[in-house]
Amino acid sequence: MIDCDLASPKLSHFSFDLEDEPSIAEAAAVISREGAIHLVVVATGILHEGALQPEKTWRSLRPETLARAFAINTIGPAIIAKHLLASLSKTEKAVFAILSARVGSISDNRLGGWHAYRASKAALNMLVRTFAIELARSNRSAACVALHPGTVSTTLSAPFQAGVTNLLTPAISIQKLLTVIDGLTPDQSGRLFGWDGAEILP
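Above: the chain's sequence. Below: its structure in token form.
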């Protein structure tokens, strides 16, 4: 069980709007004031919300739901990276990790459907790869990776848990992901890893 003391003096509290770059920049400035950063985990994502539902056919595609999926799953995390990657430690191990999804793997897509979610996560995985290439030019100590947390018992997965044989609790998923992060090296930057440490091909 992961325990967090919210009153700890080691914690800095801040908020930002994922769809507003100035607020992201302001939060990044607050974080960076403490010095070089060793770990960032971007845990944003949307699968269903109102009219935004996983599509079973291309006939269900709507511009507004595609835009919403990309805003939360792709653009927001990309802007966070824009404002924090340069602050990663250059002298000690540093990891910038973004939660992605196995369904964002193009090579692993055998069922189709879920077009907006799959596409937005595939785009996120590509951004992680391109960020990693650029990051390596200026920071040899850092890694930028995408992580698949597994199917976790949350409101995001709630409508789709039937038949899931390995449903993880949030605490277990976090523990597993932290273990993966602990084992990462800079030469693994730009890749997508599952909660079990296995690499997921793009």
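The two ends are 32 Å apart (CA to CA).
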